[in-house]
Amino acid sequence: MKIHDMMQMAFMTAVIGMLGLIPPIFLAFTPVPITLQTAGLLLAGGLLKPKQALISLLLFLLIVAAGAPLLSGGRGGIGVFFGPSGGFLLAYPVAAFMISLWLNRLKKVTALRLFLIYAVCSIGILYIGGIPFQAMMMHIKITQAALFSVIYLPGDLIKAGICAVFTVKIIQAMSYRKRDLHRGRRAV
């Protein structure tokens, strides 16, 4: 792995941590907050290679587990992984890896294609990992946890749309990927 790759991973890890400084929105009926850190996950998956995206999110979770208060609301420590949002957090690396893997298979990157991949990953993978864990931690049925999660869908779709547009603009601005975008391919 090159120094450039390690710098990109460290940068994305830092971006996700900085998004944790933005206060979360807590809802009365569920202990899982609305945060912008999922946007960082989407950007990491969209801008990094699959292995880099996976390592970047694993590094972020390792730093959080070590006690750094990088999650929204200043949360950190191993205990956050045993709370209602633990399953969502543990699904972060898988979602980032899958986003990057799917994007690398595209012949042409467009905001619409990115949006669809981001939506599938942020809603599909995170919810599949998070909802059963949330149900288990809250001692409720999975169907109840799924109903609690419906309120997050509009926000997740908005984050996916905004991140899709940002990712296309960032890829266009990155000189080492401009060539690939013009050829109709995303750099690997």
TrEMBL record:
Q: Which organism is it from?
A: Bacillus altitudinis
Q: Which ranges of the sequence are coiled-coil?
A: none
Tell me where it resides: Cell membrane
Query: What topology in the membrane does the UniProt record assign?
Result: Multi-pass membrane protein
Spell out the protein name for this chain: Biotin transporter
Q: Output a single Gene Ontology CC term carried by this record.
A: plasma membrane
Gene3D superfamilies in UniProt: 1.10.1760.20
Q: Which InterPro entries match?
A: BioY (IPR003784)
Record's keyword terms, sorted? Cell membrane, Membrane, Transmembrane, Transmembrane helix, Transport
Top-level taxon in the UniProt lineage: Bacteria
Pfam families, per database record: BioY
List membrane-spanning regions. 6-32, 53-72, 78-103, 115-137, 157-176
Task: Cite the GO molecular-function annotations of the record.
Answer: biotin transmembrane transporter activity
Family classification:
Belongs to the BioY family.
